[in-house]
Hints:
There is one protein chain. By secondary structure, the protein is α+β, with helices and mostly antiparallel strands. The chain folds into 2 domains: 1-35, no CATH class; 36-142, Roll (Nuclear Transport Factor 2, Chain: A). Helices cover 36% and strands 29% of the residues. It contains 4 helices and 5 strands. A hairpin with a 2-residue loop joins strand 4 and strand 5.
Amino acid sequence: MNLLDRFNAQIVGSDSKIFDISAKISPSGDFAKLKDLDVILSSWNAILLTPIGTYPFDPDFGSRLLNFVFEPADSQTAKNIENEIATKLSRYDDRGTVKSITVKYLPNRKGFTVSILVKFQDFEGQVSAIIDDSAYFNFLRQS
């Protein structure tokens, strides 16, 4: 097996197995290796928490979740958030299946939490994120 084949088998994966490398360092000192559902959860988290326009070579990459922080905390905004999530995940990473999306508004400040139940093959997992006014203002400071 040549070097490229070995790389494809260990990192890229196959039709039934997927692999990726995380920016976290493993106990052995290497980058942590993700596989199967963890790859999708990491990817979806990156898509949802990246504001549109911040990725240099793909300005449409990411989501507009920060735009919903100061919107009314009502059912229509929740539907718009769910639609944004479903649209961006289907566009940028359709390896998993969205089983459900739950939006809950924060009681004491502007913002919301999103929880997405995902299924990939025989695995199920959840991506959760808190999108609030502090995340919004941190983004503005960095821009």
